């Protein structure tokens, strides 16, 4: 066995610097009143802040198709709020359609890193709902909960029923599906597609025409499937083209074909499961490797005529699907790629005008070749930075389209592209490269985790004050001048300049540059990038004697003059 198969996929998404999403000072609980329609509930979601909890108070809501693209906790009533999902594809929300979603669903958890304002449905939770559909005529794309490219989604303590799919999670790392009841599906109960580190535990799944629980695709490595009860499926637990899974302490019964199938899977542990009244205990097919099957309890159907025996473990080969197949057969190792994409900055926090190094790395740790790789979205929209190529280890970069093209990435190899990025505008600039490629699994698409470059304002301010005379005849005036300078690349914060005059002085007139204004003894305004502002005040001396004339800038005494009236 090749060592490389011990890890099917290293990092799907690099850890990004937090702060690129929307946050609120404190999480709130927001009530969703009984009787609201989908549009009204969507408005509540759109107006909520990340971290808020939405408490559904009604007993039932119909024709629901809600988009969640921020971190929210969705909670049903204690008795289990009934949610009836749409089943007509014409009612799929525009935000889901824009991401290529064709499934109908009641809840869409989305992460659209290409939006003008970054929208992220990461770290959401949904619990306490009874989710079903409005129609008995299910389409093949009908689902109840649909999630794509979100991190850390928690689906807990729900009832899911009567659809093609119960949960359809597409590339959702750290997915958790726990303590749900799912039944009556024309396809699959719980699907984790390309969802690394998924944890699927203590669910009850029944009457799934295809799979009870389905974990698949090379991106979806290291899943844990434990403590689930599955009955009346074609295949109870299905592991496909992925690796590193632990499947244990599940109870699986009455499956038409197999209790557990490992199809093109590798490095999996299947142990301490109870398999009852299925035709096959564990079915191994199509280039499987290193499947450790131990300490399981089998009570299976036996063949009808002597010699009677059950199929505890059955080995098949998907290449033998034609009736005309003939020849001498051996199990062939299926070769597939294992692509990961990441980005990193030498520093994620710079000041406007400064530069940092930005590196994008694509790796293939599989045993097959990835082909026709096109890496997109290397540099974000928003005009925050200029860039210059430092190095490209493989392939070519098209400056016009902003794409990096690599013809082939062989097994156990990688490629990098390095930019010098120079800030030209302050703000948060979000980088989320993606890649399209092909391999023996067909066409593939992968998005790296968002990586944020925080560009601080470049403000360099100074000030001077001056008076044109300190000894002035009574009823004559003198000039006070305050000069504010900003040699930075960004507009300054607000200046407040005050004159606190004694009764010995009287302001005759003032003059100032736009955008400063003068009112009741106070100038307020900002100084633009590389600008100088002069604030002038003509003051008349009203009586004899020596008096203090302080000039305050932003609440502090900048200069205190002694003026003598003669």
Quick overview of this protein structure:
With 566 residues, this protein is mostly beta strands. It has three domains: 30-320, Pectate Lyase C-like; 339-456, Immunoglobulin-like (Sandwich), CATH 2.60.40; 461-565, Immunoglobulin-like (Sandwich), CATH 2.60.40.10.
Topology:
Layout: E1 29-32, H1 38-47, E2 53-56, E3 60-64, E4 66-68, E5 73-75, E6 81-85, H2 94-97, E7 107-112, E8 119-120, E9 125-127, E10 129-133, E11 143-148, E12 154-156, E13 159-170, E14 176-178, E15 181-193, E16 199-201, E17 204-216, E18 224-226, E19 229-240, E20 246-248, E21 251-253, E22 258-263, E23 266-271, E24 274-276, E25 280-285, E26 289-294, E27 297-299, E28 311-316, E29 339-345, E30 349-351, E31 355-364, E32 370-376, E33 385-392, E34 396-398, E35 403-409, E36 413-423, E37 427-431, E38 434-439, E39 442-447, E40 451-456, E41 461-467, E42 471-472, E43 477-486, E44 495-499, E45 505-512, E46 517-519, E47 522-525, E48 531-541, E49 545-553, E50 556-565
Parallel strand pairs: 1-2, 2-5, 3-6, 4-7, 5-9, 6-10, 7-11, 9-12, 10-13, 11-13, 12-14, 13-15, 14-16, 15-17, 16-18, 17-19, 18-20, 19-21, 19-22, 20-23, 21-24, 22-25, 23-26, 24-27, 25-28, 30-40, 42-50
Antiparallel strand pairs: 7-8, 29-31, 31-36, 32-35, 32-38, 33-36, 34-35, 37-40, 38-39, 41-43, 43-48, 44-47, 44-49, 45-48, 46-47, 49-50
Domain Right handed beta helix: 167-299
Domain DUF11: 340-444, 464-551
Organism: Methanobacterium lacus (strain AL-21)
